[in-house]
Amino acid sequence: MKLSVPGRAVAAALVAATTLLTTGSIAGAAPASPRAAAAPDLPVANVKAHLAQLQSIATANGGNRAHGRAGYKASIDYVKAKLDAAGFTTTLQQFTSSGRTGYNLIADWPGGDSNQVVMAGSHLDSVTAGPGINDNGSGSAAVLETALAVSRAQYKPTKHLRFAWWGAEELGMVGSRYYVNNLSSANRSKISGYLNFDMIGSPNPGYFVYDDDPAIEKALKDYFTGLGIATEPETEGDGRSDHAPFKNADIPVGGLFSGADYVKTTAQAAKWGGTAGQPFDRCYHSSCDTTSNINDTALDRNGDALAHAVWTLSS
User: Fold this and answer.
1) Nearest C-alpha neighbor of 57 from the set 82, 76, 84, 43
2) What is the pLDDT of residue 251?
3) Considering 169, 217, 232, 234, which one is annotated as catalytic?
4) What angle do CA 137, 132, 281 make, to 5 degrees?
5) What is the structure's pLDDT at 34?
6) Using only C-alpha atoms, what is the Rg of the chain?
């Protein structure tokens, strides 16, 4: 997550499997058919295996996966290879920022109505200070595993599913803004919803859901309701992550967030557990944001909520 303006982020978990939103206006989308396939449970061990790979990449490349650095390109290559092998059509989008080359990775699942596109995405870059395993390996790994679950299930959504991994978010949502700005007005209008996942495994987690598009918000909150977990609207990260360029282009957005450097209150600790008076992520933008900086329960719940929303919104 980019360091700047406080606002809205992402919070919550997931109840079914994977696929991507793709419709005209999610807010006006018809409810999924009762006979639609249920989202699969995302194996948290698989998500953690992706995080271990991102940690290894950072360790081998100066301790980070930042924009324009070898660790970022190696991270993109890792994700792309997984998606190519799973049958996705992948596209690398190249841009320049701060004198360095950056990349977005876009992955389309064959089929579905191309006039109704459901997107799920996350930023793949870290800050230069550390490996960025919670920020934002966590979101990137869960989006990747959801895409792979779509492939394993050979899911046939009604809408077209598209997944994305953004570059240079930490410099001000550069990659996602580049993507949105380079869409034609016709292609922009085909995106019925964009779901953003930035920091979903915080070690002292909260469960926050973006309160933007009502249909996306409902799909995410319904998963947590099924677990008996009360969520809160995301207020820490608005304008600080990759949903912002989509929202600014009048594309419906939503997402999940488990907290960054804001401090957990006594009431939140009573509701969610963890430690009151401490940040949700004490290693935010620091060298200690490693694989040891992840709460497995939060990662599992948010990942399953992600998949549940993708399945629900693309049915």
Assistant:
1) 76
2) 98
3) 169
4) 95
5) 36
6) 17
* pTM exceeds 0.70 for this model: yes
pLDDT at 2: 65
108-167 confidence digits (pLDDT tens):
999 999 999 999 999 999 999 999 999 999 999 999 999 999 999 999 999 999 999 999
Sign of CA dihedral 237, 243, 247, 251: negative
Average model confidence (pLDDT) for the chain? 91
- pLDDT of 198-257, one tens digit each? 999 999 999 999 999 999 999 999 999 999 999 999 988 778 999 999 999 999 999 999
Label residues 141-153 b or e (16+ Cβ within 10 Å = b): bbbbbbbbbbbeb
CA 10 – CA 208 distance, rounded (Å): 5
Sheet with 208-209: strands ordered across: 89-97, 100-108, 159-166, 113-123, 191-197, 253-257, 208-209, 232-233
Contact 78, 111 (CB under 8 A): no
Q: Which residues contact 45 (CB under 8 A, 6 or more apart)?
A: none
Is 234 tagged catalytic? no
- Strands 113-123, 191-197: pairing kind: parallel
